[in-house]
Design a protein that fits this description.
Blueprint: H1 15-34, E1 38-39, E2 45-47, H2 48-55, H3 60-64, E3 67-70, E4 76-79, H4 84-93, H5 96-99, E5 103-112, E6 124-133, H6 138-155, E7 161-166, H7 170-185, H8 193-201, H9 212-219, H10 230-246, E8 251-252, E9 264-271, E10 280-286, H11 290-293, E11 301-307, H12 308-314, E12 326-330, H13 333-336, H14 339-349, E13 353-355, H15 362-371, E14 376-380, H16 382-387, E15 389-394, E16 400-404, H17 407-417
Parallel strand pairs: 1-5, 7-8, 12-13, 12-14
Antiparallel strand pairs: 2-4, 3-4, 5-6, 6-11, 7-9, 9-10, 10-11, 14-15, 15-16
Helix pairs in contact: 1-6, 1-12, 2-4, 6-10, 14-17
The chain binds one RNA strand of 76 nucleotides through helix 3, strand 6, strand 10, strand 11 and helix 12.
Length: 418
Amino acid sequence: MEKIRTLRGFRDIFGEELDKFRRIESVFRKYSGLLGFREIELPVLEKTELFVRSIGDTTDIVEKEMFTFTDVGGDSLTMRPEATAGMVRSYLQEGLYATERMTKVSSIGPMFRHERPQKGRYREFHQIDVEVFGVKEALVDAELIFMIRMILDELGVGRYRIEVNSVGCKTCRESFRRVLIDYFETRKDQLCEDCLRRLERNPLRIFDCKNEQCIDVTGDSPLLFDSLCGECRDHFRLFEGYLSDFGIGVEINKRLVRGLDYYTKTVFEVTSEDLGAQKAFIAGGRYDNLVEEMGGPATAGIGFAIGVERLAMLVPVSAEKGDRRCFFACVGDRARAHLVSFLKACVSAGITLKHAYDAKSLKAQMRYADNLKCDFVLILGDDEIDRGIITLRNMADKSQRELPLDPKKVAQELVVVA
RNA sequence: GUGGGUGUAGCUCAACGGUUAGAGCAUCAGGCUGUGGUCCUGGGGGUUGAGGGUUCGAGACCCUUCACCCACCCCA
């Protein structure tokens, strides 16, 4: 029989990695709470149309990377490939635009993209997502960067870069698009195949190419950043000003572009060289038209997503030692009969009491206790029972002492020493 | 979807085309009746990813296929 294993790109997450996930989540919740975000859980499955409309039907995500299938009722459904679409849907569906002047929400959960897996990229991956609706002021842009910095610092992430840029609004982007196309049209012969495709579909993306020739060509091409409209330029200047008020240094990368269609003005990316080729582990930006495009009132929006798997690769293993453990070793059936009462007493007292389920020699139980890194072992055999006591061994210094054979009193004692 | 790399014990890896495929770690059991880590002895555990081919003989060579890893496209 062939062993059943996980689907390609899907994984079991456990042990050290899961510990890091939990730590990341808890540090995130600390700062998102301090900055006034509330958490929300959204469905993993949504109508396909939601993603097509929000992400853009010519993006790679929508064109070839979604887990999409047809429901028995005939609806086309999709496992969410990113969080913002669902966040916007929820914001509109729950009518939050009418009940609060602005909304700060966050969410944590799995996302799905049907891509070829590689380092730091899986078909099921996890994102921490943050969105702010209804604030057009650049202060919030800087506040999000501040939040990211606080989280990364507390997690002990060492080397990372925060890059920011502005991709402008509809008007400055439209006019620039023509300028860019004109520029590249005359240099078509120097572009790689992929970039020729990009030129047709989304010329801005040529800036993302890793091909050396293409990088050369973009080297002296006009930049969107330099032809922003007055409003977008002002917004970016204010953003920079607030960042310096927060005391955060960032790099302005005028070539930074985003893969999703809905971004406007501020975009940013946090990268690390310790990640392999997929070096961005946090990315986000402003999307001032998205809510309206999704059928809501004109509402500014901005958000970012943290790739949890990628961030976990950068988080140092926490040195904090788990709680001290105790083991119950018994010799013979008479002693074994006491196990349950000790278990009950210890759990009630908040103590972890490990034990072997099958009857083994004392030696084997000691080995097992050692293996489990237990700090204390309770030893109970005929000797102890006859004398009305139980032996408590300290595994570290091998000292032993006797306690009365009374589960509650022993549990109390363990609370003190363990 | 494309390119490259790798598939041998639970894990990390050996084995020039030539006996019965090994080692370390892990696991289990012993080393005078009830005491762990180090040490000694032993046990269990494999269709060498799968299928075909070449050969007197294949873990190794060839073909096919599958899986994983890395990279491209793209993205967190």
